[in-house]
């Protein structure tokens, strides 16, 4: 059932686009937006703070929903080689990490989030869901990748440079010490980068101005030939059209009342961002799903963007 739900195209995105763009009640969403103040460090930190507060408010884990469809969309997470490394960026409570860990018992998932509260919750949820012997395959760390980038133990400067020059000879496939959180040892400079990055409903939370550097940072820690797997809100998704005009903080960018942001992507913007950072586009499309709200019986048109990008060899 889930396969049908996530793979079928219930409507054509172009038809929705035409409808929205011809409807005067949606005009406010189409207007250009003058961004007056470039983001300061303090403003940048406010975004993380809003997410931290969000996770504290929702700490019961009630909103946790395992993304069971994920491995159908990204089967390479199952078929990849032993001990492949995945970096799940903005992991929240582990909705994406959990199906990956369940689907491939050899994979190692490094998961980061700007909120330490949600990392604790994710560990709790994953501890309860997978067998103890596999627990060491899930490793969390706290970081706001859009401000500080990723830590050096993930890919040190030397490895990042080697990726640029002689990609196939990745310096470090450092032996891992299962007892330490981060698998550095006397010989290894870092873990040698990752084979996959999952960016699932996280990029839309980053201010648009900081997206290009954030994606370049992802590019720099992914091994040559590695893949970035992307899913996020698409342009004219129902949730975008529900925002009020005073919630606009940029073109196609909105702020919820709790201070968290959401950007709505068109395919060209995604392409420009990822190809601009050096990735090759493998797959990029809208997923258009009609679903019915159980409470009021209203039909909802959801739009997501699915993308697969590869770092050249
Ligand atoms: C909508 S949730 C998605 C969670 C998860 N990827 C999933 O599949 O459900 C977005 C997550 O990104 C985190 N986040 C937002 N901005 C971030 C940033 N700049 N750096 C790291 N994490 C961030 C938030 O705390 C939140 O947990």
UniProtKB/TrEMBL annotation:
The region annotated as signal peptide is none
What's one GO MF term for it?
A: RNA methyltransferase activity
EC code: 2.1.1.-
Q: Which CDD domains match?
A: AdoMet_MTases (cd02440)
Q: Can you tell which superkingdom this protein's organism belongs to? A: Eukaryota
Q: Which residues form a coiled coil?
A: none
Which enzyme class, named as a word? transferase
One Pfam entry for this protein is: Methyltransf_23
Q: Name one GO biological process term.
A: methylation
Q: What are the protein's UniProt keywords? A: Methyltransferase, Transferase
Similarity field: Belongs to the methyltransferase superfamily. METL family.
**What's this protein's function?**
S-adenosyl-L-methionine-dependent methyltransferase.
Please give the name of this protein: tRNA N(3)-methylcytidine methyltransferase
Origin organism lineage: Eukaryota, Viridiplantae, Streptophyta, Embryophyta, Tracheophyta
């Amino acid at each position: 059932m889930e396969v049908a739900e996530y793979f079928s195209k219930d409507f054509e995105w172009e038809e929705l686009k035409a409808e929205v763009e011809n409807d005067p009640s949606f005009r406010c969403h189409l207007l250009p937006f003058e961004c007056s103040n470039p983001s300061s460090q303090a403003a940048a930190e406010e975004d993380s703070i809003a997410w931290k507060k969000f996770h504290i408010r929702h700490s019961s884990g009630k909103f946790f929903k395992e993304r069971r469809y994920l491995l159908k969309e990204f089967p390479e997470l199952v078929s990849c080689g032993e001990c492949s490394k995945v970096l799940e960026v903005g992991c929240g409570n582990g909705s994406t990490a959990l199906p990956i860990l369940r689907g491939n018992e050899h994979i190692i998932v490094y998961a980061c989030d700007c909120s330490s509260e949600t990392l604790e919750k994710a560990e709790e949820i994953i501890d309860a869901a997978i067998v103890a012997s596999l627990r060491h395959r899930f490793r969390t760390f706290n970081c706001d990748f859009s401000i500080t980038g990723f830590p050096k133990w993930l890919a040190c400067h030397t490895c990042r440079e080697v990726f640029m020059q002689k990609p196939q000879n990745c310096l470090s496939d450092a032996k891992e010490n299962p007892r330490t959180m981060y698998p550095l040892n006397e010989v290894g400079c870092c873990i040698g980068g990752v084979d996959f990055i999952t960016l699932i409903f996280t990029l839309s939370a980053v201010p648009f101005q900081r997206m290009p550097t954030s994606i370049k940072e992802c590019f720099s820690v992914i091994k040559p030939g590695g893949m970035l797997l992307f899913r996020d809100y698409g342009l004219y998704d129902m949730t975008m059209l529900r925002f009020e005009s005073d919630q606009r903080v940029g073109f196609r960018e909105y702020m919820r009342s709790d201070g968290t942001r959401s950007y709505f992507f068109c395919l060209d913007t995604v392409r420009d961002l990822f190809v601009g950072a050096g990735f090759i586009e493998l797959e990029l499309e809208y997923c258009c799903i009609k679903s019915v709200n159980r409470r009021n019986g209203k039909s909802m048109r959801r739009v997501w963007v699915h993308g697969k990008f590869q770092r050249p060899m």
